[in-house]
Amino acid sequence: NDCLNINEKGHLTIGGCDTVELAKEYGTPLYVLDENTIRTTCRSYVESFKKFYNGNGMPLYASKALSCKELCRIANEEHLGLDVVSGGEIYTAQQAGFPMEKTHFHGNNKTAAEIEFALNAGVGTFVVDNLYELELLNEIAGKLVKKAKISFRIKPGVDAHTHNFIRTGQIDSKFGFALETGEAFEAVKKALEYENVNLAELHCHIGSQIFDIDPFVTAAEIMMDFIGKIKDELGVTISNLNLGGGFGIMYVNSDEPVPYENYMEKVSVAVKAKAAEHNVPVPYIFIEPGRSIVGEAGITLYTVGGIKEIPNIRTYVSVDGGMTDNIRYALYQSDYTVVNASHADKEATQTVTVAGKCCESGDLVQEHTQVAPVTVGDTLAVLSTGAYNYSMASNYNRIPRPAIVMVNNGKSRVIVKRESYEDIVRNDI
Ligand code: LLP
After folding, report:
1. Which of 31, 227, 349, 360 is the most exposed place for a label (fewest CB within 10 A)?
2. Is 208 in the pocket of ligand 1 (CB under 6 A)?
3. 59 lines ligand 1 (CB under 6 A)
4. CA atoms of 353 and 317, how far apart (whole Å)
5. Do 225 and 196 share a structural domain?
6. Binding residue per annotation — 360?
7. Relative to the CA of 244, which ligand 1 atom is closest?
8. Which residue range or ranges hold the Orn/DAP/Arg decarboxylase 2 N-terminal domain (predicted)?
9. Is the CB of 245 under 6 A from ligand 1?
Protein backbone atom coordinates (compact mmCIF):
# COMPACT_ATOMS: atom_id res chain seq x y z
CA ASN A 1 0.00 0.00 0.00
CA ASP A 2 1.64 3.19 -1.29
CA CYS A 3 0.42 5.56 1.41
CA LEU A 4 2.00 3.56 4.25
CA ASN A 5 5.62 3.79 5.31
CA ILE A 6 7.94 3.53 8.31
CA ASN A 7 9.82 6.57 9.62
CA GLU A 8 13.17 6.93 11.42
CA LYS A 9 11.49 6.34 14.79
CA GLY A 10 10.24 2.98 13.55
CA HIS A 11 6.66 4.29 13.55
CA LEU A 12 4.12 3.49 10.86
CA THR A 13 3.25 6.52 8.75
CA ILE A 14 0.25 7.18 6.53
CA GLY A 15 0.23 9.95 3.93
CA GLY A 16 3.47 11.24 5.46
CA CYS A 17 2.00 11.50 9.01
CA ASP A 18 3.39 9.57 11.98
CA THR A 19 0.54 7.37 13.24
CA VAL A 20 1.79 7.44 16.85
CA GLU A 21 1.67 11.26 16.70
CA LEU A 22 -1.81 11.16 15.14
CA ALA A 23 -2.96 8.90 17.98
CA LYS A 24 -1.57 11.41 20.50
CA GLU A 25 -3.02 14.46 18.81
CA TYR A 26 -6.52 13.18 18.03
CA GLY A 27 -6.95 10.31 20.50
CA THR A 28 -7.86 6.71 19.74
CA PRO A 29 -9.64 4.83 18.36
CA LEU A 30 -9.14 6.91 15.24
CA TYR A 31 -9.96 6.38 11.59
CA VAL A 32 -7.32 7.83 9.27
CA LEU A 33 -7.82 8.26 5.53
CA ASP A 34 -5.21 9.14 2.93
CA GLU A 35 -6.59 11.73 0.53
CA ASN A 36 -4.08 11.02 -2.25
CA THR A 37 -5.01 7.36 -2.39
CA ILE A 38 -8.70 8.19 -2.65
CA ARG A 39 -8.24 10.84 -5.33
CA THR A 40 -5.79 8.72 -7.33
CA THR A 41 -8.23 5.82 -7.38
CA CYS A 42 -11.11 8.08 -8.42
CA ARG A 43 -9.00 9.51 -11.23
CA SER A 44 -8.02 6.09 -12.52
CA TYR A 45 -11.67 5.09 -12.72
CA VAL A 46 -12.55 8.27 -14.60
CA GLU A 47 -9.55 7.81 -16.92
CA SER A 48 -10.50 4.21 -17.67
CA PHE A 49 -13.89 5.39 -18.96
CA LYS A 50 -12.09 7.69 -21.38
CA LYS A 51 -9.87 4.84 -22.48
CA PHE A 52 -12.41 2.05 -22.88
CA TYR A 53 -15.70 3.85 -23.53
CA ASN A 54 -14.59 7.12 -25.18
CA GLY A 55 -15.79 8.88 -22.06
CA ASN A 56 -19.33 7.50 -22.47
CA GLY A 57 -19.67 6.40 -18.90
CA MET A 58 -19.14 7.44 -15.31
CA PRO A 59 -18.08 5.82 -12.06
CA LEU A 60 -20.47 6.35 -9.16
CA TYR A 61 -18.95 6.26 -5.70
CA ALA A 62 -20.97 3.77 -3.63
CA SER A 63 -21.28 5.98 -0.59
CA LYS A 64 -22.47 3.12 1.67
CA ALA A 65 -18.76 2.24 1.93
CA LEU A 66 -18.18 5.52 3.79
CA SER A 67 -20.69 8.31 3.64
CA CYS A 68 -19.78 11.74 5.00
CA LYS A 69 -19.80 15.22 3.54
CA GLU A 70 -16.09 15.35 2.74
CA LEU A 71 -16.21 12.10 0.75
CA CYS A 72 -19.18 13.44 -1.22
CA ARG A 73 -17.21 16.62 -1.95
CA ILE A 74 -14.19 14.64 -3.10
CA ALA A 75 -16.34 12.40 -5.32
CA ASN A 76 -17.80 15.51 -6.90
CA GLU A 77 -14.44 17.23 -7.38
CA GLU A 78 -13.13 14.06 -9.03
CA HIS A 79 -16.14 13.94 -11.41
CA LEU A 80 -17.80 10.85 -9.98
CA GLY A 81 -21.50 10.37 -9.48
CA LEU A 82 -22.90 8.91 -6.28
CA ASP A 83 -24.71 5.72 -5.33
CA VAL A 84 -27.00 6.40 -2.36
CA VAL A 85 -29.19 3.87 -0.56
CA SER A 86 -31.20 5.78 2.00
CA GLY A 87 -32.68 9.12 2.92
CA GLY A 88 -29.68 9.64 5.19
CA GLU A 89 -27.17 9.15 2.40
CA ILE A 90 -29.20 11.45 0.14
CA TYR A 91 -29.28 14.08 2.87
CA THR A 92 -25.52 13.79 3.38
CA ALA A 93 -24.91 14.32 -0.35
CA GLN A 94 -27.32 17.25 -0.40
CA GLN A 95 -25.65 18.89 2.59
CA ALA A 96 -22.29 18.49 0.85
CA GLY A 97 -23.62 20.37 -2.17
CA PHE A 98 -23.40 17.29 -4.37
CA PRO A 99 -25.09 17.72 -7.78
CA MET A 100 -28.13 15.55 -7.11
CA GLU A 101 -28.75 14.72 -10.77
CA LYS A 102 -25.59 12.61 -10.56
CA THR A 103 -27.00 10.37 -7.81
CA HIS A 104 -28.46 6.90 -8.21
CA PHE A 105 -30.90 5.90 -5.47
CA HIS A 106 -30.75 2.20 -4.55
CA GLY A 107 -32.44 0.02 -1.96
CA ASN A 108 -34.92 -2.84 -1.86
CA ASN A 109 -37.44 -1.09 0.35
CA LYS A 110 -37.40 2.64 -0.20
CA THR A 111 -40.14 4.12 1.94
CA ALA A 112 -42.76 6.51 0.62
CA ALA A 113 -41.17 9.24 2.72
CA GLU A 114 -37.74 8.52 1.23
CA ILE A 115 -39.13 8.51 -2.31
CA GLU A 116 -40.81 11.86 -1.78
CA PHE A 117 -37.68 13.30 -0.20
CA ALA A 118 -35.55 11.96 -3.08
CA LEU A 119 -37.89 13.39 -5.74
CA ASN A 120 -37.84 16.80 -4.07
CA ALA A 121 -34.06 16.64 -3.65
CA GLY A 122 -33.71 16.04 -7.39
CA VAL A 123 -32.14 12.58 -7.23
CA GLY A 124 -31.01 11.62 -10.74
CA THR A 125 -32.02 7.98 -11.12
CA PHE A 126 -34.21 5.72 -9.02
CA VAL A 127 -32.95 2.16 -9.19
CA VAL A 128 -36.28 0.41 -8.77
CA ASP A 129 -36.17 -2.93 -6.98
CA ASN A 130 -39.70 -4.33 -7.21
CA LEU A 131 -43.17 -3.75 -8.65
CA TYR A 132 -44.59 -2.29 -5.46
CA GLU A 133 -41.86 0.35 -5.53
CA LEU A 134 -42.52 1.08 -9.21
CA GLU A 135 -46.18 1.72 -8.49
CA LEU A 136 -45.41 3.81 -5.41
CA LEU A 137 -42.83 5.89 -7.24
CA ASN A 138 -45.18 6.47 -10.18
CA GLU A 139 -47.90 7.59 -7.78
CA ILE A 140 -45.73 9.91 -5.68
CA ALA A 141 -44.06 11.41 -8.77
CA GLY A 142 -47.53 12.09 -10.18
CA LYS A 143 -48.60 13.81 -6.98
CA LEU A 144 -45.50 16.03 -7.09
CA VAL A 145 -45.93 16.62 -10.85
CA LYS A 146 -42.50 15.18 -11.55
CA LYS A 147 -41.21 12.53 -13.89
CA ALA A 148 -38.80 10.08 -12.27
CA LYS A 149 -35.91 8.71 -14.28
CA ILE A 150 -35.69 5.05 -13.42
CA SER A 151 -33.50 2.01 -13.67
CA PHE A 152 -34.38 -1.59 -12.83
CA ARG A 153 -32.20 -3.69 -10.61
CA ILE A 154 -31.92 -7.04 -12.38
CA LYS A 155 -30.68 -10.33 -10.97
CA PRO A 156 -28.52 -11.54 -13.80
CA GLY A 157 -28.29 -14.97 -12.17
CA VAL A 158 -24.56 -14.72 -11.62
CA ASP A 159 -23.39 -15.56 -8.15
CA ALA A 160 -19.87 -14.29 -7.78
CA HIS A 161 -19.46 -15.40 -4.21
CA THR A 162 -18.67 -18.96 -5.09
CA HIS A 163 -15.35 -19.40 -6.77
CA ASN A 164 -16.83 -21.13 -9.81
CA PHE A 165 -19.77 -18.84 -10.22
CA ILE A 166 -23.07 -20.41 -11.16
CA ARG A 167 -25.76 -18.85 -13.24
CA THR A 168 -28.82 -19.79 -11.26
CA GLY A 169 -27.51 -19.10 -7.81
CA GLN A 170 -29.00 -15.70 -7.38
CA ILE A 171 -32.76 -16.15 -7.75
CA ASP A 172 -32.91 -16.31 -3.98
CA SER A 173 -31.87 -12.74 -3.35
CA LYS A 174 -33.92 -9.99 -1.80
CA PHE A 175 -32.61 -7.55 -4.42
CA GLY A 176 -34.10 -6.93 -7.80
CA PHE A 177 -36.06 -8.61 -10.57
CA ALA A 178 -35.27 -12.11 -11.81
CA LEU A 179 -34.65 -12.62 -15.50
CA GLU A 180 -35.39 -16.35 -15.65
CA THR A 181 -38.96 -16.04 -14.41
CA GLY A 182 -39.89 -13.28 -16.84
CA GLU A 183 -40.40 -10.93 -13.90
CA ALA A 184 -37.85 -8.42 -15.20
CA PHE A 185 -39.46 -8.28 -18.65
CA GLU A 186 -42.91 -7.75 -17.13
CA ALA A 187 -41.51 -4.89 -15.07
CA VAL A 188 -40.13 -3.22 -18.19
CA LYS A 189 -43.54 -3.47 -19.88
CA LYS A 190 -45.23 -1.99 -16.79
CA ALA A 191 -42.76 0.89 -16.68
CA LEU A 192 -43.59 1.75 -20.28
CA GLU A 193 -47.26 2.02 -19.30
CA TYR A 194 -46.73 4.27 -16.30
CA GLU A 195 -46.86 7.98 -16.99
CA ASN A 196 -44.63 9.44 -14.32
CA VAL A 197 -41.56 7.27 -14.77
CA ASN A 198 -39.07 7.20 -17.59
CA LEU A 199 -37.11 3.96 -18.00
CA ALA A 200 -33.56 4.92 -18.92
CA GLU A 201 -31.33 2.27 -17.40
CA LEU A 202 -30.84 -1.31 -16.31
CA HIS A 203 -28.70 -2.18 -13.31
CA CYS A 204 -27.05 -5.24 -11.82
CA HIS A 205 -24.66 -5.82 -8.94
CA ILE A 206 -23.23 -9.30 -8.51
CA GLY A 207 -21.52 -9.03 -5.13
CA SER A 208 -18.65 -7.45 -3.27
CA GLN A 209 -14.93 -8.10 -2.69
CA ILE A 210 -14.73 -10.06 -5.97
CA PHE A 211 -11.38 -11.10 -7.42
CA ASP A 212 -12.48 -12.76 -10.70
CA ILE A 213 -13.21 -10.87 -13.89
CA ASP A 214 -15.30 -13.62 -15.51
CA PRO A 215 -18.50 -13.16 -13.47
CA PHE A 216 -18.47 -9.44 -14.29
CA VAL A 217 -18.13 -10.22 -18.00
CA THR A 218 -20.91 -12.82 -17.86
CA ALA A 219 -23.22 -10.43 -16.02
CA ALA A 220 -22.53 -7.66 -18.56
CA GLU A 221 -23.31 -10.04 -21.42
CA ILE A 222 -26.55 -11.17 -19.81
CA MET A 223 -27.59 -7.56 -19.31
CA MET A 224 -26.79 -6.72 -22.94
CA ASP A 225 -28.82 -9.74 -24.09
CA PHE A 226 -31.74 -8.37 -22.10
CA ILE A 227 -31.30 -4.93 -23.66
CA GLY A 228 -31.36 -6.70 -27.04
CA LYS A 229 -34.56 -8.53 -26.14
CA ILE A 230 -36.24 -5.28 -25.05
CA LYS A 231 -35.26 -3.68 -28.34
CA ASP A 232 -36.46 -6.64 -30.42
CA GLU A 233 -39.70 -7.34 -28.65
CA LEU A 234 -40.77 -3.90 -27.45
CA GLY A 235 -38.92 -1.60 -29.84
CA VAL A 236 -37.43 0.31 -26.92
CA THR A 237 -33.77 1.30 -26.60
CA ILE A 238 -32.29 1.29 -23.11
CA SER A 239 -29.59 3.92 -23.20
CA ASN A 240 -27.81 3.34 -19.86
CA LEU A 241 -26.32 0.24 -18.28
CA ASN A 242 -25.14 0.22 -14.67
CA LEU A 243 -22.91 -2.73 -13.86
CA GLY A 244 -22.60 -2.20 -10.10
CA GLY A 245 -19.52 -2.40 -7.90
CA GLY A 246 -17.69 -5.18 -6.14
CA PHE A 247 -14.02 -4.91 -7.05
CA GLY A 248 -11.91 -6.64 -4.43
CA ILE A 249 -9.15 -4.98 -2.40
CA MET A 250 -6.20 -6.23 -0.38
CA TYR A 251 -6.81 -6.90 3.31
CA VAL A 252 -3.99 -9.41 3.78
CA ASN A 253 -1.01 -10.37 1.65
CA SER A 254 -2.71 -13.43 0.18
CA ASP A 255 -5.47 -11.26 -1.39
CA GLU A 256 -4.90 -10.73 -5.10
CA PRO A 257 -7.13 -7.96 -6.41
CA VAL A 258 -7.51 -7.78 -10.19
CA PRO A 259 -6.18 -4.54 -11.68
CA TYR A 260 -9.46 -2.82 -12.52
CA GLU A 261 -8.09 -1.76 -15.93
CA ASN A 262 -8.19 -5.43 -16.90
CA TYR A 263 -11.74 -5.63 -15.66
CA MET A 264 -12.75 -2.46 -17.53
CA GLU A 265 -11.13 -3.66 -20.72
CA LYS A 266 -12.68 -7.13 -20.74
CA VAL A 267 -16.13 -5.86 -19.86
CA SER A 268 -15.99 -3.08 -22.45
CA VAL A 269 -15.02 -5.58 -25.17
CA ALA A 270 -17.92 -7.84 -24.15
CA VAL A 271 -20.42 -4.95 -24.03
CA LYS A 272 -19.40 -3.68 -27.46
CA ALA A 273 -19.54 -7.16 -29.01
CA LYS A 274 -23.02 -7.70 -27.61
CA ALA A 275 -24.17 -4.26 -28.80
CA ALA A 276 -23.07 -5.21 -32.31
CA GLU A 277 -24.68 -8.66 -32.06
CA HIS A 278 -28.03 -7.19 -31.01
CA ASN A 279 -27.77 -4.15 -33.24
CA VAL A 280 -28.24 -1.69 -30.36
CA PRO A 281 -26.10 1.33 -29.49
CA VAL A 282 -23.35 0.82 -26.89
CA PRO A 283 -25.04 2.08 -23.72
CA TYR A 284 -23.65 4.78 -21.45
CA ILE A 285 -21.95 2.72 -18.74
CA PHE A 286 -21.96 3.22 -14.98
CA ILE A 287 -20.02 1.27 -12.38
CA GLU A 288 -20.40 1.65 -8.61
CA PRO A 289 -17.15 1.06 -6.75
CA GLY A 290 -17.26 1.65 -3.00
CA ARG A 291 -14.73 -0.52 -1.20
CA SER A 292 -12.06 -0.11 -3.89
CA ILE A 293 -12.15 3.69 -3.58
CA VAL A 294 -11.84 4.08 0.19
CA GLY A 295 -10.90 0.66 1.57
CA GLU A 296 -7.14 0.63 1.28
CA ALA A 297 -6.96 4.39 1.83
CA GLY A 298 -8.03 3.93 5.46
CA ILE A 299 -6.53 2.55 8.65
CA THR A 300 -7.77 2.47 12.24
CA LEU A 301 -5.51 3.34 15.16
CA TYR A 302 -6.03 1.91 18.64
CA THR A 303 -4.16 2.11 21.93
CA VAL A 304 -3.24 -1.16 23.59
CA GLY A 305 -4.61 -1.65 27.11
CA GLY A 306 -4.64 -4.94 29.01
CA ILE A 307 -2.73 -7.91 27.67
CA LYS A 308 -3.93 -11.31 28.86
CA GLU A 309 -2.02 -14.49 28.24
CA ILE A 310 -4.06 -17.70 28.32
CA PRO A 311 -1.30 -20.30 28.59
CA ASN A 312 -1.00 -22.58 25.55
CA ILE A 313 -4.06 -21.03 23.95
CA ARG A 314 -3.65 -17.38 23.05
CA THR A 315 -2.73 -13.89 24.09
CA TYR A 316 -5.52 -11.34 24.14
CA VAL A 317 -4.41 -7.80 23.37
CA SER A 318 -7.28 -5.48 24.26
CA VAL A 319 -7.70 -2.21 22.39
CA ASP A 320 -9.82 0.86 23.10
CA GLY A 321 -12.25 0.19 20.22
CA GLY A 322 -13.57 -2.98 18.58
CA MET A 323 -16.87 -4.08 17.09
CA THR A 324 -18.36 -0.60 17.55
CA ASP A 325 -15.90 0.84 15.01
CA ASN A 326 -15.18 -2.34 13.02
CA ILE A 327 -17.82 -5.06 13.12
CA ARG A 328 -16.45 -6.95 10.12
CA TYR A 329 -14.58 -9.65 12.00
CA ALA A 330 -17.53 -10.32 14.30
CA LEU A 331 -19.90 -10.34 11.33
CA TYR A 332 -17.91 -12.03 8.56
CA GLN A 333 -14.66 -13.29 10.14
CA SER A 334 -12.97 -10.83 7.80
CA ASP A 335 -9.19 -10.92 7.51
CA TYR A 336 -7.21 -7.86 8.44
CA THR A 337 -3.55 -6.99 8.69
CA VAL A 338 -2.63 -5.62 12.11
CA VAL A 339 0.58 -3.63 12.59
CA ASN A 340 2.21 -2.55 15.81
CA ALA A 341 2.51 1.06 14.65
CA SER A 342 4.85 1.96 17.51
CA HIS A 343 7.35 -0.66 16.36
CA ALA A 344 6.63 -1.02 12.66
CA ASP A 345 10.33 -1.57 11.96
CA LYS A 346 10.45 -4.71 14.11
CA GLU A 347 9.61 -8.17 12.87
CA ALA A 348 6.09 -9.47 13.48
CA THR A 349 7.05 -12.34 15.80
CA GLN A 350 4.21 -12.33 18.33
CA THR A 351 0.89 -14.10 17.68
CA VAL A 352 -1.99 -12.27 19.31
CA THR A 353 -5.76 -12.00 19.31
CA VAL A 354 -6.81 -8.37 19.16
CA ALA A 355 -9.92 -7.91 21.31
CA GLY A 356 -12.27 -4.96 21.51
CA LYS A 357 -13.67 -3.35 24.67
CA CYS A 358 -17.32 -4.33 24.34
CA CYS A 359 -19.15 -6.67 26.71
CA GLU A 360 -19.27 -9.41 24.15
CA SER A 361 -16.92 -12.39 23.74
CA GLY A 362 -17.20 -12.18 19.97
CA ASP A 363 -15.92 -8.61 20.01
CA LEU A 364 -12.61 -9.40 18.32
CA VAL A 365 -10.79 -7.42 15.66
CA GLN A 366 -8.61 -10.30 14.53
CA GLU A 367 -7.57 -13.70 15.91
CA HIS A 368 -4.13 -15.30 15.85
CA THR A 369 -2.47 -12.49 13.94
CA GLN A 370 1.25 -11.72 13.82
CA VAL A 371 2.55 -8.42 15.17
CA ALA A 372 5.82 -6.99 16.47
CA PRO A 373 5.92 -7.65 20.26
CA VAL A 374 3.24 -5.55 21.94
CA THR A 375 3.32 -3.68 25.26
CA VAL A 376 0.70 -1.59 27.02
CA GLY A 377 0.37 1.84 25.43
CA ASP A 378 1.52 0.82 21.96
CA THR A 379 -0.43 2.14 18.99
CA LEU A 380 -1.92 -0.65 16.89
CA ALA A 381 -2.96 -0.02 13.31
CA VAL A 382 -5.49 -2.15 11.47
CA LEU A 383 -5.07 -1.71 7.72
CA SER A 384 -7.64 -1.41 4.92
CA THR A 385 -10.44 -0.16 7.15
CA GLY A 386 -11.59 2.74 4.97
CA ALA A 387 -14.68 0.93 3.69
CA TYR A 388 -17.61 -0.47 5.70
CA ASN A 389 -16.06 0.40 9.06
CA TYR A 390 -17.15 3.93 9.96
CA SER A 391 -20.29 3.37 7.87
CA MET A 392 -21.19 0.26 9.90
CA ALA A 393 -20.16 1.68 13.28
CA SER A 394 -22.54 1.62 16.23
CA ASN A 395 -22.93 3.01 19.73
CA TYR A 396 -23.16 -0.40 21.39
CA ASN A 397 -22.30 -0.09 25.08
CA ARG A 398 -22.83 3.65 24.48
CA ILE A 399 -19.37 3.95 23.05
CA PRO A 400 -18.96 7.16 21.02
CA ARG A 401 -17.95 6.74 17.38
CA PRO A 402 -14.33 7.71 16.60
CA ALA A 403 -13.27 10.74 14.59
CA ILE A 404 -12.10 10.48 10.99
CA VAL A 405 -8.88 12.32 10.16
CA MET A 406 -7.84 12.97 6.56
CA VAL A 407 -4.10 13.06 5.88
CA ASN A 408 -2.39 14.46 2.84
CA ASN A 409 1.35 14.85 2.31
CA GLY A 410 2.23 15.18 5.97
CA LYS A 411 -0.79 17.31 6.96
CA SER A 412 -3.85 16.15 8.86
CA ARG A 413 -7.36 17.50 9.46
CA VAL A 414 -10.53 16.19 11.08
CA ILE A 415 -13.32 15.49 8.57
CA VAL A 416 -15.72 13.82 11.01
CA LYS A 417 -15.60 14.77 14.69
CA ARG A 418 -15.36 12.23 17.47
CA GLU A 419 -18.73 11.72 19.14
CA SER A 420 -19.03 13.05 22.67
CA TYR A 421 -21.00 11.66 25.61
CA GLU A 422 -23.46 14.48 24.94
CA ASP A 423 -23.97 13.11 21.44
CA ILE A 424 -24.72 9.76 23.01
CA VAL A 425 -27.69 11.12 25.02
CA ARG A 426 -28.77 13.73 22.47
CA ASN A 427 -32.01 11.97 21.55
CA ASP A 428 -32.82 10.55 24.96
CA ILE A 429 -35.98 12.01 26.48
N1 LLP B 1 -23.69 -1.10 -5.85
C2 LLP B 1 -24.61 -1.80 -5.18
C3 LLP B 1 -25.96 -1.90 -5.68
C4 LLP B 1 -24.25 -2.44 -3.96
O5 LLP B 1 -25.16 -3.14 -3.32
C6 LLP B 1 -22.93 -2.31 -3.47
C7 LLP B 1 -22.52 -2.93 -2.22
C8 LLP B 1 -22.00 -1.54 -4.22
C9 LLP B 1 -22.43 -0.96 -5.41
C10 LLP B 1 -20.59 -1.33 -3.78
O11 LLP B 1 -19.87 -2.50 -3.74
P12 LLP B 1 -18.29 -2.45 -3.44
O13 LLP B 1 -17.62 -1.84 -4.64
O14 LLP B 1 -18.08 -1.61 -2.23
O15 LLP B 1 -17.94 -3.87 -3.24
N16 LLP B 1 -20.88 -4.57 4.38
C17 LLP B 1 -20.16 -5.48 3.50
C18 LLP B 1 -20.27 -5.04 2.06
C19 LLP B 1 -21.68 -4.94 1.57
C20 LLP B 1 -21.76 -4.41 0.18
C21 LLP B 1 -23.16 -4.09 -0.19
N22 LLP B 1 -23.35 -3.55 -1.50
C23 LLP B 1 -18.72 -5.57 3.94
O24 LLP B 1 -18.37 -4.96 4.95
O25 LLP B 1 -17.93 -6.27 3.33
Report:
1. 349
2. yes
3. no
4. 6
5. yes
6. yes
7. 1
8. 41-294
9. yes
